[in-house]
Write a structure and sequence with these properties.
By secondary structure, this protein is an alpha/beta fold. 39% of the residues lie in helices and 14% in strands. It contains 13 helices and 11 strands. A 7-stranded mixed β-sheet has the order 1-7-6-5-4-2-3, sandwiched between helices. A two-stranded antiparallel ribbon has the order 8-9. The structure holds pyridoxal-5'-phosphate.
């Protein structure tokens, strides 16, 4: 069976370094917000080109803390509208709901899967206060245009960069440094993945960074002094030590993903299948390689019976989930069509070329 993503193989490359990091961690006797977290925060801020990085418990919390931080600063208030792509992972939308804000679902462009720029303009009302952009599947959204729209309408821009670590535009600006703040996830399967949960916020806004550093740690300014009604969502010290091992390999791993994607783009030839559209100006780090076809479910069974594992990101649109039942009447045909047609094929920096060859051969024979 060709696995969709062989995480064990992916991480086995770092095993000796993970052991060293673990020994360092045990020897330090320091388990929460220690040197490993500090080192990672500095390294990841520098990597993204942002002034600040604050480690969090996971990617959802990173986004929640951004919105809560802006509420604390008085830049957002209960009920303010936040524009979100309707075809994102549900976490993006939950972060808006959990902080008492109102998500406004906007259709994507069906070719790039990223938020439709014309639809953003139509969705703006006097209550709109922010845009939450998602670099879905690893492809940067058109941040230049989004930032222009945001400036014209005095909106905050928050990036959900959970799928786009290291994606950069032609000018070398990276995900995490395009908007007012960005949320990252280090869930194991992400392009930069820990061996458990982890997340981070990046921002150039010093005030926001200070507030989020407090909010993630019970709202404390110093031990047992609570300034704010905070949360417990700290990046774990041991996970930070593993991330310190993996961060230096992120660019070369992304390059391997891009190389595999180019191979797929050049070799998959089947009139039933639509390949992902890459906007040349906006870089793609291929968190997912996503095909579209009308007979998606049949295609998935076909590949499965031929020993190739695939996944569907995502099978049900957020507004069609039971949890978001109050949004079920929204008319979002492009989003629904995407959820019915997409399928992700194996994409990883450690997929053997012989496996990639076999995958292409099977797809072309379908
Ligand atoms: C993974 C992911 C998240 C949430 O990250 P967790 O660490 O699992 O909380 C948020 N948004 C998107 C787009 C994601 O892919």
């Amino acid at each position: 069976m060709i696995k969709f993503l062989d995480l064990k193989l992916l991480n086995s490359r770092f095993e000796a370094q993970f052991q060293d990091a673990y020994n360092r961690f045990i020897d330090s006797g320091y388990y929460i917000l220690g040197n490993e977290v500090k080192t990672f925060q500095n390294a990841f801020a520098k990597y993204c080109g942002a002034k600040h990085c604050i480690g969090t418990g996971n990617g959802l919390d990173a986004l929640v803390l951004i919105f809560q931080g802006y509420k604390t600063l008085g830049k957002l208030k209960e009920g303010d509208e936040v524009i979100v792509p309707a075809n994102t992972y549900i976490a993006s939308i939950l972060s808006v709901i959990h902080t008492g804000l109102t998500p406004v679902f906007v259709e994507p462009d069906q070719e790039t899967f990223n938020i439709s720029l014309s639809q953003i303009k139509n969705a703006i009302t006097s209550r709109t206060k922010a845009i939450l952009t998602v670099h879905l599947y690893g492809q940067l959204a058109d941040m230049q245009t989004i930032n222009t729209i945001a400036r014209e309408n005095k909106l905050l821009v928050i990036e959900d960069a959970a799928q786009a670590h290291g994606a950069q535009n032609g000018e070398g600006i990276k995900a995490g440094n395009f908007g007012d703040a960005a949320g990252f996830s280090f869930y194991p399967s992400k392009n930069l993945g820990a061996l458990g949960d982890g997340g981070a916020v990046t921002t150039n806004d010093e005030e926001l960074a200070t507030i989020i550093s407090k909010l993630r740690n019970y709202g404390t300014s110093s031990k047992y002094v609570n300034d704010l009604i905070g949360y417990n969502s700290r990046l774990d010290e041991l996970q930070a030590s593993f991330l310190n091992v993996k961060l230096p390999m992120l660019d070369s791993d992304n390059l391997k993903r891009i190389t595999l994607a180019k191979f797929y783009q050049a070799s998959i030839k089947n009139s039933k299948i639509v390949l992902p559209k890459v906007n040349d100006n906006f870089s793609h780090v291929y968190h997912q390689f996503v095909l579209r076809l009308d007979t998606r479910n049949d295609f998935q069974s076909y590949l499965k019976s031929n020993q190739v594992e695939t996944l569907i990101y995502y099978p049900i649109a957020p507004h069609k989930q039971k949890a978001l039942i109050k949004y079920k009447m929204l008319d979002l045909p492009i989003t629904v069509a995407i959820h019915n047609k997409v399928i992700s094929i194996p994409m990883s920096p450690v997929l053997p070329q012989t496996d990639a060859d076999k995958i292409v051969e099977l797809i072309n024979a379908y």
